[in-house]
Description:
The chain is of the alpha/beta class. It contains 15 helices and 10 strands. It has 2 domains: 2-184, Rossmann fold (3-Layer(aba) Sandwich); 190-295, Orthogonal Bundle (DNA polymerase, domain 1), CATH 1.10.150. It has helices spanning 22-32, 37-40, 96-103, 120-127, 139-148, 166-173, 189-193, 219-225, 228-239, 244-255, 263-273, 284-295, 297-307, 325-338, 371-376; strands at 41-43, 110-113, 131-136, 156-160, 178-184, 312-322, 342-343, 352-353, 359-361, 384-390. Helix 4 (120-127) links the parallel strand 2 and strand 3. Residues 3-43 and 45-89 have low confidence and may be disordered.
Amino acid sequence: MPTSAPTLAQFSWSAFPWNGTGELRHQALAHLGKWRWRSLFQVGVWPWFGSTESMDEQMPWGRGKSVSRPGGSEPAGPPVDPGGRALPFYHLPVLLQEVLDVLQPGPDKLFFDGTLGGGGHTEALLQHGARVVAMDQDDEALAHAGARLKPYEDRFCALRGNFRNFAQVLGEAGVGLFDGMLIDIGVSSRHLDAPERGFSFAREGPLDMRMDTTSPLTAADIVNTYPQEEIERILREYGEEPQARRIARAIVHDRASRPFTTTLQLAGMIERVCPKHGRRHPATLTFQALRIETNQEIAALREFLTAAPHWLKPGGRLAVITFHSIEDRVVKQAFQALSTPFLDRPEWPSPRPNPDCLTRLLSRKPVEASPAELELNPRARSARLRAVERLPA
């Protein structure tokens, strides 16, 4: 349980006369036990770490490697690639005001953002005086956050990882209970618009689709190695694709002579066997399903929803933004199970208390984007926000 772990406030890096020697680093890491700070903390330094100067050169800063942190005369700015070009990372945070209305940030409140992404939601929480612990599995997002949120580093830190593992990561870091938690599980605009990431069927790129670029499984692995029956199941279950069998059969047939390696190769094949009708591209649902399978998104969501309520203070709130009916259904069912005081079955003489009832629903229907937001950001049209509040102890 999170309350049993020693908090970082109980441990100060100043307890170690840090001078950069390997021996002293070893003593510090031994004292912390399983806390793998060098591989976890990416950006931001909190007061509870003690002196920031003492560990400044050892903070992992950018792309998961322990490198010098921008500072001194080095100007702050967007991350750059090896060629010196600025790396744009644009992602309008959806339902921003609605998230703030639900989470009610303020000074001295502590929040968790499990999908840091472009940093928009986290920045809004920080602007209201809150402290934020964030996570993301995408190195590019973490690098961007380091530049964008550097002015708030005394109240912000980010960790590399999938939100499905947040309980283990935060438990090892000694972080306590939260006033609010948020995940936004939609794919970012940056991912969709970056051909090299392989998320879009409209741009030529490798058939990748990994949020975490260190993950071994790619979309190409799925379409080139999975049995036809398994591909059909994925398309039907994660994409609700009515032509799942036809597409799966065509994938297996075509890959026998030429493996799929690019996004347009796969999208063109799907368009050939399922000609376009209407505005939606026939590859839309297949690409959605492959992305979910590649990143194990539904399994990650279920694991997060199981653990998250236990990390909320009484009165703390959990907010989840989804972008398609499959995810929204998972969240709706999980929140209903967590917010139902009594269970009843035909074979029982009377209803029984629900041992898993930890929360109350803040609304029965999901919150959707306003017309004003849709005009600014059409990609918010499918966003759905659901939220619950932790019951008093």
